[in-house]
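Anyone? Bumping this.
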Amino acid sequence: MQQQGKFILMNLSEFEDYMHNLQIYFTRKINHLQHHHTHVPSYKNFDGKNHFARLAAMERYHVQNNLGQIAQHYTTFPDGQIAVCRSLSIIPAGIKRHNTGGICIENIGNFDLGHDVMTNAQRESIIKLTALLCDKFNLEPSLNSIIYHHWFRQTDGVRDDAGGKRILENHKTCPGTNFFGGNTVLDFQTYFLPGVQRTMSFLKTHKEPVLMKGRVSVSQLNVRKGPSKSFQKIEAIMKNTLVSIYETKNNWYRIDKAKWVYAEYISVERQSKAYQR
Ligand SMILES: [Zn+2]
C-alpha cells in the first residue's frame, strides 16, 4: 500500500482488506456503480510505476474542467492495482445528470475495439472491486445497480440503452466497445454480470458469521492479538467505531482475524446469530 496526498494505491488483496475495514460515516445513499474507461491516459501512457503521476494529471485535467477535484472514486490500473481517489461521501462527476447515489470507477485504458486489450490483472481487479462494492453497499448486481456510461445520452443524460442493440450516435463509447466483450446492456449481461455474481457468492460463502455488532465506548480502545491483556497490542480504535464481533472468550471479543478487544468497552447494538456483516 502506498499513499501520495489523498491517493491511496493498493494491490487487490490490500484493497480487499481495506474495504473490509472501511467504516462508513456518510449518509449519502449509494444506489449504483458507474464503469468508465479513461480513453486517455491509455496503456501507452502507463509505464508500470507512474500510477501517482497519472492520477495527478487526471486531477489537473478535471480541475481545469471545473470539477473541483478528481471526478472518480476509484481508478483501476493495467497492473491490477486500485487507487482510492475521491471521498465516497461526495457524489462523483461521472455521468451527466446521473451522479446522485453513484460511485464512479475509472478504468485506465482505451477499451474501444482495436485499441488496448485489457490485462488479466485489471480484469480481475475490476470484477472484484465491483463485487466488493456491491457487497459493502448491499446492491444486488443488475442493469440498474451497475451501469456503463455508454447507456446514457451525452446531450441530456437520459438513459437510452437501445435494449442491447449497438448505439452509434449521441453516446460516448465509454467504457469501450470491447470492455469485457462490449458496451451494450446485452454484452454486460453476457460477459460482465456473471463474473460479478460468481465473485459475490464466493465472498458470501467465505464470510464468517457475525455474532453481534457494537460500538467502542471509551475514547481509545486497545486491540490485542489474543483474548487477554498479556497479548501484544496491535492498534487502538476510536470511540463510537462500529465493530463486528465474531467470537467471545473470557469477556473478550474477537473483532477480526486475531484482533481482540476487552468486552466491557464495547456497547453491543444488536444480538442476532443470523446477523451477517
Ligand atoms: Zn465515461
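Late reply, but here is one note on the structure posted above: Residues 36, 149, 172, 174 surround zinc ion (CB under 6 Å).
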